[in-house]
Amino acid sequence: MRIVMLGTGAALPDPVRCHTAILITLDSGRHLMLDCGHGATRQLMRADVNPAEVGDLFFTHLHHDHVCELPFFVISGWILNRVGALNIYGPDGTKKMVSHLFENGAFDADIRARGAYPARQANMEAIRPKVTEYGEGVVLNDGEVRVTAALMDHIPAEISPCYGFRIEAEGKVVVFSGDTAPCDNILPLSRGADLLIHECTFTEAFIEHRRQSKVGTFSHTSPQDLGRLAVEAGVKQVVATHIGHVDSLCPVLKRAAGKHLPVDLMGPHQIDAFVSEIRSVYRGPLQIAHDLMRIDL
After folding, report:
1. What is the spatial distance between Cα 266 and Cα 289, in angstroms, rounded to a whole number?
2. What is the pLDDT of residue 216?
3. What are the distances in angstroms from CA 185 to CA 20, 70, 235?
4. How far is it, in rounded angstroms, from Cα 123 to Cα 50?
5. 3-class secondary-structure state, position 6
6. Mean pLDDT, the chain, as a whole number?
7. Angle (nearest 5°) at CA 218 between 216 and 220
8. Number of H-type helices and E-type strands within the chain
9. Which residue from 61, 67, 57, 7 is spatially nearest to 32, judged by alpha carbons?
10. Helix (H, G, I), strand (E, B), or coil: what is residue 189?
11. Closest CA to 36 of 108, 90, 80, 81
12. Axis-axis angle for helices 223-233, 269-279 (nearest 10)
């Protein structure tokens, strides 16, 4: 099994980190993707994967930085000759979102224009994703892959329920937290995982700044809380992702983030802070994610 971290950033546009997207490729060659934030399609091609060959897409929640690439990903798959429909699994609201995008939706003119050509007419199913809305429990179990979802704690469920996933395939277990504050459900979901991919948006200094300034909310997991979870769950390795731009040196990003983050503290040294703060609790294998990072299990 191969995992590629296609996008490892948070909500702001970032010249170094794309939005959240994770590719899981089984030894059989089957491709699954978790979330589809901005940049996912291009990153798939950089990882030598044809977007049209990704058959299953799982959304953790409907924040824009986890879903906004969807129309480009679907239309690109159509142009690249996807066979059949993409399977999308998402929380409540996913069907409504998808219904506004393609035929008779935002990209209707593009689809009608391209659909005039025989090559595109031959695979119209490719721009008609099959959407399955899920709740807690088993999302998919087809004999090759088992995906289980648990409710996380990120934004109010009445706006969009947020889930984490436990993916079991080929004798391995990969857990992806999605976005969440520490919550009861993440521990049983993570227990004994071969790989825990967990959000870790801010270092402690940035968390404290947001507490003091009362700018925005903090619905994420701190490095120390991630370390405690990893120890208690007995996971074999940890990848921290959804990095909240704290390591950026981009002047535009710093100016834009001035009211939300302590920009004088931003810089690559914050990666060392992530490591030391997680390491204060957890001593096992650890990586701070970067775009196109590959993990082989």
Report:
1. 17
2. 62
3. 21, 28, 15
4. 16
5. strand
6. 95
7. 140
8. 11, 14
9. 57
10. helix
11. 90
12. 40
Taking the C-alpha atoms of residue 41 and residue 135, their distance in angstroms, rounded to an integer, is: 27
Residue with tokens 């648990």: 150
pLDDT band at 261 (very low <50, low <70, confident <90, very high): confident
- The residue to which tokens 């995982």 are assigned: 193
Element (H, E) at 52: none
pLDDT(146) > 90: yes
Query: Residue 257: which pLDDT band, with cuts at 50, 70 and 90?
Result: confident
Q: Rounded to the nearest 5 degrees, what angle is found at the Cα of 140, between the Cα atoms of 25 and 129?
A: 80
User: What is the C-alpha to C-alpha distance for residues 55 and 32, in angstroms, rounded to an integer?
Assistant: 6
Q: Which residue, chain included where needed, has tokens 């889930």?
A: 163
Chain centre distance of CA 19: 7
- DSSP secondary structure code for residue 196 in this structure: E
Contact 162, 179 (CB under 8 A): yes
Rounded Cα distance, 37 and 251, in Å: 23
One-letter amino acid for residue 123 of the chain: N
DSSP code at position 170: T
Are 176 and 164 within 8 A, CB to CB?
Answer: yes
Catalytic residue ranges: 65
Q: Show the beta-strand stretches assigned E in the chain.
A: 2-7, 21-25, 31-34, 54-58, 87-90, 130-133, 137-141, 146-151, 163-169, 172-176, 195-199, 238-241, 286-288, 293-296
Q: Which residues contact 265 (CB under 8 A, 6 or more apart)?
A: 205, 206, 209, 246
Instruction: Please say whether the beta carbons of 249 and 268 come within 8 A.
Output: yes
- Greater confidence (290 vs 209) lies with 290
Domains and CATH numbers, the chain: 2-296 (3.60.15.10)
Task: Dihedral sign for Cα 140, 145, 148, 152, please.
Answer: negative
